[in-house]
Amino acid sequence: MIDDRIAGIASGVPGLRGVLVVTMPDCLLYGSWLRPDMSFSAEEASGYFGDLIRANRQGLRAVGAWTSDMQVTIEGTSVLVVLREVDENYVVCAIFDREAPLGMVRLHLKIAIEQLREILPRVEAAQMSKGARVLRFIERYAPDAHAVLHRVATRTRIPIERLRNPDGLSSEEVKSIEEAAKRILGIEEIHF
Amino acid sequence: MHPYAAYFERYGEHGSIFLAGIPCVYHCHHFNLFHDQTIDDILGESAGFELRMKVARNHFRELFARLARRTGKELPNEIVALAQALLASLGHGRLICEGTGLALRAEGEYLHYGFAWKEKYGSRVRRLDPADAVAAGAVAAIAELTGQKDQRLIGRELQCVAMRAPRCVFAVDRDLSRDASRPISLEELRKHIPGGVERGLYEEEIHEITTKLIEFLRSVSGDERGLIEGFNVFVTLHLASYYNDTAFEAIRHIEAVSPGAVSSAESLLREAGHVCVFNTFGNIILSPEWEALVGPLTGDPRDVVRDCTAIARGLGFGHWAIAEHIPGKRIVLRTTANYEAAHWLCRSGPCSKSRSYFMQGAGVALLVLSTRVRWKERPQLTQAFYDGLFHGGDLGVRLEVPRCLTMGHEVTEVVVEAK
User: Fold this and answer.
1) What residue ranges in B327-381 does DSSP mark as E strands?
2) Arithmetic mean of pLDDT over chain B
3) By C-alpha distance, which of B309, B305, B332, B306 is closest to B320?
4) Cα distance from B33 to chain A (closest Cα, Å)?
5) Are A32 and A6 in contact (CB under 8 A)?
6) Which pLDDT score, from 0 to 100, does residue A191 have?
7) Where are the alpha helices (DSSP H) in B147-225?
8) Which of A157, B199, B281, B316 could form a disulfide with B17 if both were Cys (CB 3.0 to 4.6 A apart)?
9) Is B161 helix (H, G, I), strand (E, B) or coil?
10) Chain A: residues touching B (Cβ < 8 Å)
11) How far is it, in rounded angstroms, from Cα A8 to Cα B107?
12) How many CA atoms lie within 13 A of B279 on its CB side?
């Protein structure tokens, strides 16, 4: 269903090879449209491009220049890729032919993002508890992801069964999970 | 030939490794980093580092002192030179020490833990605490042996390559704590290692392969950096008591203060066994050196289990025997002496549960890897591959330990079955 609606927005744009809508911070593909002659994996690409946006956010924060209105442009030999945040929960990745004029790309992307804002749901992230969001974040970014829940349980002394059902965690427990996450990831703050 | 080959001993048929009477085992950097990480997960970074440093100090001091006596090199500068050369030969990296006693300072660019951590995790995680508690312990041991007698010292890592410093820098300070732990020697361990060993399936083949592997390992020692890089991993010949004292001390602590979190801590100690078998055993099996020793890789689960059992014996984990094996369905490992159990019994005597965490995890990994990896396709044993195999906790297998030496039984028996 969502793919059909993205197709309705994207399919008429000249030089556009594909559009990926990626959820943040988990970098999962929410929906996509690919021009029929394209054969790459939208799921695989969404993970990489989502990570790229996350890294850019962190990089901008590190130099004290963070902005929510960020755009990343990649000029490859055969493609022009533009990544732009729709809002804190979604990133749109538009892949154009390399010869597409940059001015037209920007214009079409602006229009497309306005239309996407209308159709993308906002409920999922808002309904997820903070504990669930912290755990989802750490599971995605921690090294040794296979063991991270046990690591958090060991550090926080919260039984793993409770971590597997994080919506019932108390605010104190969430706070201690955040502290564990920061230690495990080596970061000072967690930004969603 | 290893430069200290004359001081190595393989104990009876068990194959346990002793260097100047101090128990040792081979482990790779994946296991070492995961083990230390688990200790810090249980105790926190500060207390974790302190425990790891002190345990390393206590056992290294005994090892250095014994070798100094046996080689007749007991002057302070001779002890420093001996310790530096020994650490490098065992794959712990090359320490450069200046001074003696409380004035000792040391540096190193390629210390096993810091360097390996930077290689494995450095691009993904910013480390907030130093990684080289083992080297800090070794520095403290050297300082104690070259300073005033009976003065207890601690090693501090002031800079660490894992924290993006150009080199690791160490200093020593007085130890004001009351640390009464002491090393465990061959003489004490002997009491808990019976004369006989278990015989299992494929015994003749395993014995033959183990013999070849032991011969191969006799020539393995550190390179110009003091690292042992082989089979796609960094290997150390390490103090068995380092793993045991740190793991058991940490697990005792969490049992006392947070019983509800014990099962997760124990899962992490078992997970270290998965990490070891996947990375060390797996990369050995895929190596050209292994093919030269054993022959072409068949990928048959029977051969994988046979080879892994031989590797376990060769690396000094104990004389594991395959009591039962139904490929893909069930494996039973049995031993009369594993390095964890003998140590536990020396320190604490029998208890109500199995403390053979490493062997448990290794048994699970053995069943998983022998059937779910297409060995003949020679896969790259990457972190992504590992995550795919072991992520999620439920591996589709059931682990039981019906008997364990730490529970007063005559054998440790690890049973792994597909669900």
Assistant:
1) 330-335
2) 94
3) B309
4) 11
5) yes
6) 66
7) 186-190, 203-217
8) B316
9) helix
10) 141, 143-147, 149-151, 153-160, 183-187
11) 63
12) 26
Question: Each residue of B386-403: b (16+ CB within 10 Å) or e?
Answer: beebbbeeebebeeebeb
CA dist B183 and A17 (Å) reads 67
**Contact (Cβ atoms closer than 8 angstroms) between residue B231 and residue B15:** no
R_g of chain B computed on alpha carbons: 20
Please name the member of B37, B267, B387 whose beta carbon is closest to the beta carbon of A145: B387
| Distance (Å) of CA B93 to CA B83, B101, B108, B222, B408 | 11, 21, 7, 8, 39
Closest Cβ–Cβ partner in A141, A160, A186 for B264: A160
Predicted confidence (pLDDT) at residue A192 exceeds the cutoff of 90: no
Task: Choose the mutation target among B35, B41, B117, B127 for the interface with A, i.e. most A CBs under 10 Å.
Answer: B41
The residue with tokens 């190596």 is B287
Residue in B221, B280, B278 with CA at minimum distance from that of residue B86 = B221
Cβ contact B261–A159 (<8 Å): yes
d(CA B170, CA B165): 13
Mutate to test the interface with B, among A51, A54, A157 (most CBs of B within 10 A): A157
Of all residues in chain A, the percent with pLDDT exceeding 70 is: 90
Q: Give the single-character DSSP code of A88.
A: T
Subunit contact B45:A147, Cβ cutoff 8 A = no
Phi (first) and psi of residue B187, to 5 degrees = -60, -40
Domains of chain B with CATH codes: 10-174 (3.30.1380.20), 193-230+260-418 (3.30.1380)
* Cα–Cα distance for residue pair A135/A190, rounded to 1 Å: 11
Mean predicted confidence (pLDDT) in B246-275: 96
